[in-house]
Specification:
The chain is an alpha+beta fold and 97 residues long. The protein has a single domain (2-91), classed as 3-Layer(aba) Sandwich (NADH Oxidase), CATH 3.40.109. The protein has helices at 10-13, 35-56, 69-76, and strands at residues 16-23, 60-64, 82-91. Strands 1-3-2 form a 3-stranded antiparallel sheet, with helices on both faces. The longest helix has 22 residues, at 35-56.
């Protein structure tokens, strides 16, 4: 599935690719008009934690929003009330030769 999580070639080779999905059915206490922004902020906080973990363990990571959300949602079998927000690739930095 890594191949569909982004258009950049490194996503195919990285050992890990995270996909952040908002499940709006679980946000019933959040007003409907604010759910997307809440989900985006939560995804950003989680992604930052992944960045901190990666750096502290000698890994590289990058957040990617240039993704085919519809293809990912289809591959994951997401419901209409679940939205793909972004993808985050984690792996080892390429060495320059």
């Amino acid at each position: 599935m890594r191949r569909i999580t982004g258009y950049q070639d490194f996503a195919d080779e990285a050992p890990l690719d995270l996909v952040y999905v908002a499940d709006y059915t679980r946000m019933h206490l959040v007003p409907t008009g604010q759910r997307e922004s809440y989900a985006a902020v939560a995804a950003g906080a989680i992604a930052k934690n992944v960045y901190l973990f990666a750096v502290s363990n000698g890994l590289a990571t990058v957040i990617r929003a240039w993704i085919n959300c519809a293809a990912i949602a289809d591959a994951l079998g997401l419901a209409h009330n679940q939205q793909v927000l972004l993808s985050q690739t984690v792996g080892y930095a390429r060495t320059m030769t």
